[in-house]
Design a protein that fits this description.
Radius of gyration: 27 Å
Structural class: mainly alpha
Helix content: 55-70%
Order of helices and strands: HHHHHHHHHHHHHHHH
Strand content: under 5%
Largest sheet: none
Number of strands: 0
Number of helices: 16
Distance between the termini: 113 Å
Number of domains: 1
Shape: flat
Length: 273
């Protein structure tokens, strides 16, 4: 009896930081985060984000929410919009930052990290939830969804929705390419490696700003609005020739051609009289 109480108390202590650090508060929020290309890799970049992500993956409610999301045409539209969002490229470019691997090395030597990931497996309620999942109302609704004509109506009407129209018109918006160029040439996109690129590129930006503003690319209906708290300082305009002139400062192409150029004959030394 005492062992059971101690185990329950330990699980409660471990669950507190998981709930505090988890970015999603519900199974539907987890499904939305996992199907967003700009956020889906966040759990692999930080051990603190991996723990709540792993806990969500072991929850049958998350699996049902993911299944329902796959049957929703808005999920596909939102995913297509996310693939055209510079924040997606910036999210994956952060894997070039050595700090990511330093955090994982430190987590590998932290016993609390192992305990927080092992405790859900030691909780009998997790196995009970999975055994009862097939009889839950959420599972019944998910299994009955393919029999609902409204689902097929939604898929037929999806190409004419405002979100789909915005997504299809996005490649015709020059602002999208300007945002991609600004994000690509922003040293902050590459984490700590960007600090070495900043002097050469002439576009030094704060290390904390990791998302380039998308100038009029996505409407709110497409679900791709970037939070104002994550926007960086205005990056250099990729269409500005001065930006490329700054990048070329200090570059001398003659230093590569010098070994191949013939040497000028040296004047003969005048014999001493």
């Amino acid at each position: 009896m005492k062992i059971a109480k101690l185990t329950a108390a330990l699980m409660a202590v471990v669950a507190v930081p998981v709930l505090a650090e988890g970015a999603a508060a519900s199974s539907d929020a987890w499904a939305a985060k996992m199907t967003d290309p700009a956020q889906s890799a966040a759990a692999m970049k930080d051990p603190k984000a991996f723990t709540p992500w792993m806990g969500a993956m072991m929850d049958p409610a998350t699996a049902m929410a993911m299944s329902n999301a796959m049957m929703n045409p808005n999920t596909s539209i939102r995913y297509a919009s996310g693939m055209m969002n510079p924040a997606t490229m910036q999210s994956y470019m952060q894997f070039m930052d050595p700090a990511v691997y330093s955090r994982w090395m430190a987590a590998g030597m932290d016993p609390n990290f192992y305990m927080s990931n092992m405790m859900p497996f030691m909780n009998p309620a997790m196995y009970t939830n999975w055994m009862n999942a097939s009889m839950s109302p959420a599972a019944m609704n998910m299994m009955m969804a393919p029999m609902n004509p409204a689902m097929y109506t939604n898929w037929m009407m999806a190409p004419m929705s405002p979100a789909a129209m915005n997504t299809m018109m996005a490649p015709m918006n020059p602002g999208m390419y300007n945002s991609w160029a600004a994000a690509t040439t922003n040293p902050a996109t590459y984490g700590s490696w960007g600090g070495m690129m900043a002097p050469w590129m002439g576009m030094a930006a704060p290390a904390t700003g990791m998302v380039a503003p998308m100038t009029g690319m996505m409407a709110p209906a497409s679900g791709m609005v970037v939070p104002a708290t994550t926007m960086m300082a205005p990056a250099a305009n990729a269409m500005d020739p001065n930006a490329y002139m700054n990048m070329m400062q200090g570059y001398n192409p003659m230093m590569f051609m010098a070994p191949m150029m013939p040497q000028a004959p040296q004047p003969a030394a005048t014999p001493a009289k």
